[in-house]
Structures are given as structure tokens and as C-alpha cells.
């Protein structure tokens, strides 16, 4: 741990999926180890920013809700990303702003109201021992998280925070323009890839003009989209590295968008890759929601991402 850690929350009810996530685990894919990190980079970054944490601080990613945490000390926290019906001692907890919680109070998340994944950040950040340079929890690989072994939270677990966790200060809130309505149809920016020319003309038309639906086969590894069948003339490929947001098309013609816990290599042809912010937006979609794909240039994607990161570097 990079700083002295103190008790922050004790888990009273664990919920289906709550994982500690820092910015991710990089420089290890040659070992077959995946990235991890927040599925929704946007919500994670804002939660940390609202409590004064620097980029890369560890926050708690809560999927679907169903978790209850008891504060072990006075803390300053923020919840961003999805609205999972968060309450503090039974009273609605405001999202997208910093708030105080007192020792003994109960923070609870019920169920999805708007979006799928909420991010809980505390001033000073959550603290755990890094594994391969990161706290990011990847359950499949048994790496990271609160215990270093990739376990999801369980009843009775203790979450530790940095010593600065109790500091107060003025209330900080995100501007309305940064608070997405995840129930709306998402328009997902996609960078065309090297194999896009192998798809038939009709398939390319359908890819960028059809409305796709998020399948119930979706997790932190990837999200399947259902819609018109896409056909590719490329019959075989040598497996190659897979980046965040890669849109693979298997033989059934239904795209799979690969997210943070993806495999490190793959051999299906790809339309391209969603931008990091588009992948974040997709990670907030519930099964059955509609999305659209929109081709974007590298220059536009890079400019959008630099604008996003500038907020968290203290540059307006």
C-alpha cells in the first residue's frame, strides 16, 4: 500500500458484483494478463475527481446494486455513474457530488434505476496491496481487489481507505452536461479497423445504420450485440492482440464488443474498436437497450479523449 490505510467501510451485505478498480493493469498483456480497471471510465473518473483524488485512485465499482456498507469512520465520498438507488441511513443519497457520511451510518445501493454500474469514491482513495502494479480486480484471473486474490466483496469484508478519507471541504458537483441519461439510445463512436474492408457492402451499411440491441450475454469481458447478420469475406486469421473496445464478428454475424476483462488475443475479424468513452457508455447499458454504431476518425476520437482527460488534469 502506498500510504497508511485505515478502516473505511465494513460490508454488511455484499450484492452480486462489487469490485475495487484503479485505472487498470498495464504492461502485462504479454503474460496473458488482461487490463481490468473501470468498465465506465467516465463515471469512475468523475467519482474520484469529486472527492479530490488524483487520476488512478482506487474506487469501488458496483454492478446492479444490492450492497450495504457500514462506515467505520467519518468519510467524504461521491457516487457517480449509474443511479442504483443509493441511500444513506435510508435517505436518498445525491449522485455526482461530494457528500459526507458519519461513522456508523449505512450506505446502501438497491437496484438499477438509470444505468448499470455505479462508482463509489472516498477522499484519499480505497487502499489495497497492488498485484502486478495494480489494485484492479479481475475475478477470472484471481488478481487484485480488496484481498489481492480477485474476490468479489463478501459479508464482513473490510474496505480500507487512505488516511485522507475523512477530509471535508466544499461540496463539489459535476456539471449537468457530464451526467448521462443512460436510458437513452447510445451512439457509440467506432474507429474502423484493418479488417473492415473484408466485410460485404451490405454488412457495412447495416453495421452503421441498423439499431443494435444489447444481449443478456454481457459482462466485464464483453457485450454481445444482436441485429442484422454481418458477413465477412475473411475466412481465417492469425490470432492477434485485442484492445479495449474491439468489435469482433464471429461466424454467427453478431458483433461482440470486448471490454476491460477481455482475453488478450483473438482471431475473429473486427469492424474496428469503440473509443474508450464509447466503451464506457456501452458498459452502462442494460440488456435489451438499443445502441447505434458511428464511424469516427482517429483525429476526432483523440481530440475527444484529450478534452475528457484535461478536466481531471486540472486544465479547463
From TrEMBL:
Domain (Carboxyltransferase): residue spans on this chain: 30-312
Signal peptide range: none
Keywords: ATP-binding, Hydrolase, Nucleotide-binding
Pfam families: CT_A_B (PF02626)
GO molecular function, one term: hydrolase activity
Protein name: Allophanate hydrolase
